[in-house]
Design goal:
Largest sheet: 3 strands, antiparallel
Radius of gyration: 16 Å
Number of strands: 5
Distance between the termini: 20 Å
Shape: elongated
Number of helices: 1
Oligomer: single chain
Strand order of the largest sheet: 2-1-5
Amino acid sequence: MAQQFNPNAQNIKIRYAVLVFLKGSTAPLVLYVNEYMDLYRELSEYMKSNQAVVIEKETEGPLKKVCFASNQIAAVAIQEEQYL
């Protein structure tokens, strides 16, 4: 018998990702890190600065290492995801 979907199941977990929208790109970079709020704040500060710097980060998701210029950030967001 097939197991029915139970929305109250205890095995549903929540993880967070920081989305980085780059100028001229159609899809955001999805960065999985432990300290997602710290990364969000850091990238937000880079957006306020007039100085362009290269940002290099190691992540825990499919993207293991990413590098981009701070002056290319158009927006930053936090995404909550549910997974089993």
